[in-house]
Amino acid sequence: MRRRVGTPPVDLRLDGEGLELKRLWVDDAELEGGPQGAPPSTEGGVKEGSPRFSLDEEGALYIPSSVLPAEANKPFEVKSEVRLEADKTRFPTLLSNGNKIEESVVEGAPDRHYAVFEDPHNKPCYLFALVAGPLASVKDTFTTKVSRRKPLLRLLNNSFT
């Protein structure tokens, strides 16, 4: 998340029910002692609490299924830039809202890859989603009647589980 150039800084509040703060980073530096001005269990960082997902002793996300779906459910509108990073074997497909603007192997970790997605349009936060997992896909194009454009269509299926 980045603050728009020319806007004043404001507090960022991350809230949720039944979540426990595990770690908090700002500008790639971990904050010791949690966020300032709030008890550690109420704001920011890596959180735990969903019955489907949990963190192991090292803070890594543990997913009992082969596909990781996630969504947000708050009503405010946002533009987003999301970086997903995962093990290439367990999660070969990384998807989120918007356009994929970057993807590569993680430097120094050849068994991991990442993808960056940018959604330049304000959308209600509940429309945000991400999916990561072994998904099969079928691709095709078609020609539109009006503009004669040939957009790429890609259908994905969780056929490996």
Low-pLDDT parts are 37-55, 58-62
Topology, number of strands: 14
**Sheet with most strands:** 3 strands, antiparallel
Write down the domain tally: 2
Order of strands, main sheet, comes to: 7-12-9
Average pLDDT, rounded to a whole number, is 69
Rounded radius of gyration (Å):
18 Å
Structural shape: extended
Helix/strand order, N-terminal first = EEEEEEEEEEEEEE
Helix content: under 10%
Query: How far is the first residue's CA from the last residue's CA?
Result: 33 Å
Number of helices in the DSSP assignment: 0
Strand content: over 45%
Structural class: mainly beta
Region (Disordered): 28-52
GO molecular function: zinc ion binding
Please provide a written account of the structure.
With 161 residues, the protein is mainly β. Helices cover 0% and strands 47% of the residues. The protein folds into two domains: 1-62, no CATH class; 65-161, no CATH class. One of its GO terms (molecular function) is zinc ion binding. InterPro entries: Aminopeptidase_N-like_N_sf, Peptidase_M1_pepN. Residues 28-52 are annotated as: Disordered.
